[in-house]
Design a protein that fits this description.
The protein has 282 residues and is α/β, with parallel strands linked by helices. The chain has two domains: 199 residues, Vaccinia Virus protein VP39 (Rossmann fold, 3-Layer(aba) Sandwich), CATH 3.40.50.150; 60 residues, rRNA adenine dimethylase, C-terminal domain (Helicase, Ruva Protein, domain 3). The structure holds S-adenosylmethionine. S-adenosylmethionine binds next to β1, α3 and β3.
Length: 282
């Protein structure tokens, strides 16, 4: 019995339900319930929130979220082998855990959630970045979520919080930092997982801002950031050539130098350029 909830330890759950990890599903499980409770706490007070969890697996983080008081957890899991283990957790926390079997990329969770909503997940590596980009680029802002607390490979986590001038700085940093506060809250070595992955991991906590940090048209900003970083070694006047006629004039009007490279441009600078190309009307 574990101390946090009286359910069996995760190693026993994995054995009982035959949950040998599948690489194709990015299965690296967390077995230490003290650690999963610590990750759950990074999402703040969950007692008034619904929590969306992607990839609960045998339920380590799920148990952490419930033990830490989440009002309700909606968990989406692709591997049907995990469902009996998750069902045991549902029974221990009546009416607080709802599990959907399926691919998180295909399921719209909103029909099953009541605001306020926070997201907490140890993401499968193969879909983690795609989900993050979707959550950061909804049609309307503010998004459905108040915060995202997500485990990534450390290299991806560093790209999310990266600053101009660093190697990790790119599209992910701009997307994340334009409309959210993002910081790394926990670093984890490979040994924290079973089986241990090849690389280290980190938990990133993102809080949605009520408004974007600087005004800009989302599609225009996205276009210049994608073009700029697709050819990150080129000067802006060359990498952004296809974005608009007379791009050099726009770059100068935004107070930037046409000879700068995308990796030198701050978020504020990209937003100023986006406003030159397409003014934002309020
Ligand atoms: N949350 C568990 C933990 O922390 O131990 C498991 C994390 S493991 C890194 C990723 C989980 O995501 C696995 O259980 C895997 O089966 C599941 N998964 C992989 N691809 C998925 C997808 N497209 N949709 C939903 N779940 C997925």
């Amino acid at each position: 019995m574990s101390q946090i909830d009286g359910l069996p330890p995760l190693s026993e759950v994995i054995q009982t339900h035959g949950l040998a990890a599948k690489k194709s599903l990015g299965q690296n499980f967390l077995l230490d319930l003290n650690l999963t409770a610590k990750i759950a706490r990074q999402a703040g007070d969950l007692s008034d929130c619904d929590v969306l969890e992607i990839g609960p697996g045998p339920g380590g983080l799920t148990r952490g979220l419930l033990a830490e008081g989440a009002r309700r957890v909606l968990a989406i899991e692709k591997d049907p082998r995990c469902l009996p283990a998750l069902d045991e957790i549902s029974q221990a926390y009546p009416n607080r855990l709802h599990v959907i079997e399926g691919d998180a990329l295909d399921i719209d969770p909103l029909a099953h959630l009541t605001p306020p909503i926070r997201v907490s997940a140890n993401l499968p590596y193969n879909v983690g970045t795609e989900l993050l980009v979707r959550w950061l680029t909804p049609r309307d802002w503010p998004p459905f979520w108040e915060s995202l607390t997500l485990m990534f490979q450390r290299e991806v986590a560093q790209r999310i919080v990266a600053e101009p001038g660093s190697k990790a700085y790119g599209r992910l940093a701009i997307l994340a930092q334009w409309r959210a506060d993002a910081r790394i809250v926990i670093n984890l070595p490979p040994e924290a997982f079973s089986p241990p992955p090849k690389v280290s991991s980190a938990v990133v906590h993102l809080t949605a801002l009520a408004e974007p940090r600087y005004p800009a048209d989302a599609a225009t900003l996205n276009r210049i950031v994608a073009a700029g970083f697709n050819q990150r070694r080129k000067m802006l006047r060359a990498s952004l050539k296809g974005v608009a006629p007379n791009i050099q004039g726009y770059i100068e009007a935004a107070g930037l130098r046409p000879t700068d490279r995308a990796e030198q441009i701050s978020l504020e600078g990209f937003c100023a350029l986006a406003r030159q190309i397409k003014p934002v009307t309020t």
